[in-house]
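Long-time lurker, first post. I've been practising inverse folding by hand and with some scripts of my own, and I keep getting stuck on stretches where the structure tokens seem ambiguous. Below is the full token string for one chain I'm working on. Before anyone asks, I'm not after the true native sequence, just a reasonable design that respects the backbone. If someone could post their per-position residues I'd love to compare against what I wrote down in my notebook.
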């Protein structure tokens, strides 16, 4: 990545710009802008997050926001209320208060003498979500959005209930946020006499969100609020949507490109959950240059040609050997002028012909351990591995060896007629690329709670022994399967630890199954190109402890229990400008017995540290989740230390009835 230090306009920075909300709550913003903006006003760009601008997202902020400022923008990175250096309290993700605060910041920015009145909003993940949701509120000054790794459906395409199945990440992310938001503001900004009071008040009111999310197990009004798919026409700002094939949020780009009426373009690369100018697997792209083209057109009125860009640009990945990490993925960029593309045709492949004997699916509860993380982001061993261990625990439908390569671009689907011996059952379907030597690489997967076969809002119990029809939609993908390989469709009724198991062991009888495969004419090379990545000067730090990620699966031969253990040590660094050192370590264990779905358990343990010149704080959070046939049980604990003194402790403990899941 090229580092740019000279820009068209000189940049000035304000590390703690106070923006006071109508209720008196002061939000802390870090602001970069051209030094002469008061004489030559510029558009503003907002990124509104709970992830701490001082020591959380600072790595990517340093690469990105000064770059925008140097090209004629006021770039504003705001800590949401209740997080980082901002006042107030946070009670949930994407709350009405959060979105109203964003609208208020937009109005504040547009009214400043250094702003030309036009504002854009951007973000990845949480910031990608709330910029779309804020756009749906239609604040007058908001003219354009760049949303990365986001969703249009908070229930069925986020970390909560994929296909109506309870995602393990529902609990995992709640544990992560409990830790993230437990840290205090920086005393250098909040003041020696205020930071502790703000911190303790924050801790006393800190939510543990897992119980709240578990109380909404169907797609009710709680999830509909903020789900863009409820009314795509509400989005009137121009939207650039970006995602990665190795991320959990890979479907949104297609949904937005196909459905919103405002100007919209989509880009999907081979990346994990990161901004694409520093993401992996490579190739990276010049994201900041692409962003400037978008901002310049919609915030400055400059003709940059973005309206003529293809509607959907995607990286078709070549087949590679299965591995838990890929530093790069060979392939090619394809471009479709309109989306959905009329050039993509659906091939129907009959897996179980009508009139055949039913195929029995009765997977061990441990099937799924080769699936990887829902959204990898550590540049470590989080990707799906060789699928053969999971294939051996699934029913597999292997197709003939391909005589010619094929490009799969879109969302494969599998139509099934199936019966269950229980009132509730899950089904997981994986599409795999099988190499000539038998190695199995995951292309895409989909899961469905069969009680949700007709509606996520109004599930219907299965009648044991009665055959029903269901459609399992796999995630969007762009993948070339070469000649000499074969496709494998693997079906299981467990997918641990991606989804929480059914309360009882289940047997499914598949009566029929048909694969609907979206095929694009074979690309002959890159159909579109991007500039190479460049960015502003990186964050200046001193490494105190290097980062490291570990992942291990253990089987207890005496008890039969299988445990996945994950340690993500994010290291510790010291900021060379303001001297604050920060570090964090996350530990997770996910355990299950292959024969007992009620043996499932998850545990998390996070440690966060901050220090400077003899001052130090540490927060330790732990959480556990398990279930019986009737209830989910979740508990958590926060401990906060100043130096070595315990200054705060709090426990959470709730039992939530299981709905018809």
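-- Answer (accepted) --
I ran through it position by position. Result:
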């Amino acid at each position: 990545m090229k580092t740019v230090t000279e820009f068209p306009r000189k940049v000035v920075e304000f590390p703690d710009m106070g923006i006071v909300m109508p209720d008196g709550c002061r939000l802390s913003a870090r602001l970069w802008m051209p030094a002469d903006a008061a004489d030559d006003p510029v558009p503003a760009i907002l990124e509104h997050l709970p992830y701490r601008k001082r020591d959380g997202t600072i790595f990517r902020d340093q690469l990105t926001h000064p770059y925008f400022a140097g090209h004629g923008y006021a770039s504003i990175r705001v800590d949401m209320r209740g997080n980082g250096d901002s006042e107030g309290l946070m009670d949930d993700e994407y709350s009405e208060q959060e979105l109203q605060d964003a609208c208020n910041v937009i109005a504040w920015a547009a009214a400043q003498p250094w702003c030309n009145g036009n504002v854009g909003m951007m973000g990845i993940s949480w910031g990608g979500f709330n910029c779309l949701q804020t756009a749906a509120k239609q604040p007058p000054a908001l003219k354009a959005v760049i949303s990365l790794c986001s969703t249009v459906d908070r229930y069925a395409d986020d970390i909560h209930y994929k296909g109506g199945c309870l995602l393990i990440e529902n609990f995992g992310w709640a544990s992560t946020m409990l830790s993230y938001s437990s840290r205090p503001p920086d005393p250098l900004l909040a003041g020696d006499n205020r930071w502790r009071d703000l911190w303790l008040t924050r801790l006393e009111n800190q939510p543990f969100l897992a119980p709240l999310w578990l109380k909404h197990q169907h797609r009710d009004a709680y999830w509909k609020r903020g789900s863009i798919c409820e009314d795509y026409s509400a989005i009137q700002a121009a939207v650039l949507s970006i995602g990665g094939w190795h991320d959990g949020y890979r479907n949104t780009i297609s949904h937005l490109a196909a459905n919103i009426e405002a100007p919209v373009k989509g880009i999907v690369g081979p990346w994990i959950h990161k901004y694409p100018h520093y993401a992996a697997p490579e190739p990276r792209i010049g994201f900041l240059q692409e962003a400037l083209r978008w901002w310049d057109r919609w915030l400055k009125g400059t003709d940059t040609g973005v309206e003529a860009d293809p509607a959907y640009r995607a990286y078709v990945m070549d087949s590679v050997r299965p591995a838990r990490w890929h530093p790069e993925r060979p392939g090619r960029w394809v471009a479709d002028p309109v989306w959905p593309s009329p050039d993509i045709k659906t091939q129907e492949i009959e897996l179980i012909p009508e009139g055949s004997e039913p195929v029995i699916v009765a997977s061990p509860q441990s099937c799924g351990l080769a699936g990887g993380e829902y959204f990898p982001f550590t540049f470590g061993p989080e990707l799906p591995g060789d699928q053969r261990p999971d294939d051996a625990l699934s029913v597999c439908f292997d197709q003939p060896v391909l005589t010619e390569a094929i490009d799969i671009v879109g969302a494969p689907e599998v139509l099934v007629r199936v019966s269950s011996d229980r009132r509730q059952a899950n089904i997981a379907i994986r599409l795999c690329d099988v190499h000539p030597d038998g190695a199995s690489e995951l292309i895409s997967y989909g899961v469905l709670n069969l009680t949700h076969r007709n509606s996520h809002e109004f599930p219907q119990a299965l009648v044991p022994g009665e055959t029903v029809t269901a459609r399992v939609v796999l995630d969007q993908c762009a993948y070339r399967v070469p000649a000499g390989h074969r496709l494998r469709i693997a079906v299981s009724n467990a997918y641990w630890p991606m989804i929480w198991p059914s309360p009882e062991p289940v047997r499914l009888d598949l009566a029929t199954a048909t694969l609907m495969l979206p095929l694009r004419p074979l690309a002959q090379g890159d159909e579109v190109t991007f500039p190479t990545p460049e960015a502003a000067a990186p964050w200046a730090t001193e490494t105190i402890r290097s980062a490291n990620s570990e992942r291990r699966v253990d089987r207890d031969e005496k008890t039969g229990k299988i445990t996945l253990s994950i340690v993500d040590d994010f290291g510790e660094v010291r900021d060379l400008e303001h001297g604050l050192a920060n570090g964090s370590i996350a530990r997770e264990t996910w355990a299950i017995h292959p024969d007992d779905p009620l043996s499932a358990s998850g545990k998390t343990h996070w440690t966060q540290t901050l220090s400077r010149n003899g001052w130090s704080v540490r927060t330790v959070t732990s959480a556990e989740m398990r279930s019986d046939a009737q209830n989910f049980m979740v508990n958590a604990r926060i401990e906060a230390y100043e130096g070595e003194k315990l200054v705060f402790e709090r426990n959470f403990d709730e039992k939530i009835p299981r709905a018809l899941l």
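A couple of notes from the structure itself: The chain has a mean pLDDT of 97. The first strand starts at residue 2 and ends at 3. Happy to go over any region you disagree with.
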